[in-house]
UniProtKB/TrEMBL annotation:
Protein name per the record: Phenoloxidase-activating factor 2
Organism classification: Eukaryota, Metazoa, Ecdysozoa, Arthropoda, Hexapoda
Main location, first listed in the record: secreted
Molecular-function GO term, any one: serine-type endopeptidase activity
Signal sequence range: 1-15
Subcellular location: Secreted
Sections of the chain in a coiled coil: none
SUPFAM superfamilies: Trypsin-like serine proteases
InterPro entries the record matches: Peptidase_S1_PA (IPR009003), Peptidase_S1_PA_chymotrypsin (IPR043504), Peptidase_S1A (IPR001314), PPAF-2-like_Clip (IPR041515), Trypsin_dom (IPR001254), TRYPSIN_HIS (IPR018114)
Keywords associated with the record: Disulfide bond, Secreted, Signal
Length: 348
């Protein structure tokens, strides 16, 4: 099963306003109340709701002060955002702003100045993304038709504490063993024409070399895909789901009970996760990361998988199938070194 594209045109404007009340130099970012921490709300008696001229045109938004100190709280890979970005939203299924700052949107060009959602991806270097090969293999000869967006959260809104960033693709590297029929070795690297600026909503995910210890029952998949296989709806806001890693033997047994039949063999390039009813990645999530916390550093994450395929979505007892990312650690490292790109940024 291939993951279908989401035909949503992505906006490019951003809701920033500059003003100087009482000689304060403030860059006012108009956002919904729940996206502005209390200590960054630039109200303090400066705005009177009874007056006609509002700083923020939308009465449901507040002026969120952009601090002059914009340094990251940490530049290490695998660390979630949360220094300057604190959302009031807490949910088991909706990601908060900056919770998965390595998640990317892969866009394809359809017409001039129009880019549509294609797949998900993840950032492992300011100039390098990884995704599923089935998402981008048809564009190897014309990488300029692919654009990558980092720092996105709600694709229908520009009222966010920090803006997204876009970069074009310079080179698409599809693994030499990729099979479009079986989806074996379903991994690709995107070399970007420019580097992303690391912010609280744009960060790198670590890659796990073989042998690293993770918490296998607390892994997370995230993306903008559908909430059901049939008649499901795509999510405008980044969603998340907690999934356990499933052993190969249990996964193979489950997959053989489906239409794949009793002779199906799971290729070594795949791992499995999930199998709980209603908890799964789905159509539109292809290319998105599956991450797990480190056993000895639970607030730091590594990418262990890439959303690849499945039998339906969220069926009880049937796990989803992901690219076995640690298997490609050396291949990724080699491609980076060949292009004089620092591979140490995604190492633990």
């Amino acid at each position: 099963m291939l993951f279908l594209l989401l035909s949503v045109t992505l906006a490019t404007s951003s809701g920033y306003y500059n003003f100087q009340p009482n000689q304060r130099n403030v860059q006012c970012h108009c956002v919904p109340l729940h996206l502005c921490p209390d200590d960054e709300m630039a109200l303090n008696g400066l705005l009177d709701p009874r007056i006609g001229d509002r700083v923020c045109p939308d009465p449901n938004e507040v002026c969120c002060d952009q601090k002059e100190n914009t340094k990251l709280t940490s530049s290490r890979c695998g660390i979630q955002g949360g220094g300057r970005v604190k959302s009031r939203i807490t949910s088991k299924t909706t990601a908060s702003f900056g919770e998965f700052p390595w998640n990317l949107i892969i866009q394809e060009s359809r017409d001039k100045d129009m880019y549509l959602y294609k797949c998900g991806g993840s950032l492992i270097h300011p100039r390098v993304a990884i995704t599923a090969a089935h998402c981008v293999s048809s564009y190897v000869g014309e990488p300029e038709k692919i654009r990558v967006r980092a720092g996105e959260w709600d694709i229908e809104s520009r009222s966010e504490p920090l803006p997204f960033q876009d970069n074009f693709v310079e080179e698409i590297l599809v693994h030499h063993g990729y099979s479009a029929l079986s989806l074996e070795n379903d991994i690709a690297m995107l070399i970007l024409s420019g580097g992303f600026q690391l912010e609280d909503n744009v960060r790198l995910i670590c890659l796990m070399s073989p042998g690293e210890a993770i918490v296998e029952n607390r892994c997370m998949a995230s993306g903008w895909g559908k909430n059901a296989h049939n008649n499901g709806k795509y999510s405008p806001i980044l969603k998340k789901v907690q999934l356990p890693i499933i052993s190969r033997s249990l996964c193979l047994e489950a997959l053989r009970s489906t239409r794949l039949g009793p002779r199906y063999n799971l290729h070594e390039s795949f791992i499995c996760a999930g199998g709980r009813i209603g908890q799964d990645s789905c159509k539109g999530d292809g290319g998105s990361p599956l991450i797990c916390p480190l056993l000895e550093e639970s607030d730091r994450f590594v990418q262990i998988g890439i959303v690849s395929w499945g039998i339906g979505c969220g069926i009880d007892g049937i796990p989803g199938v992901y690219v076995n990312v640690p298997l490609y650690f050396d291949w990724i490292d080699e491609q980076m070194n060949d292009r004089d790109l620092d591979a140490s940024v995604f190492r633990l």
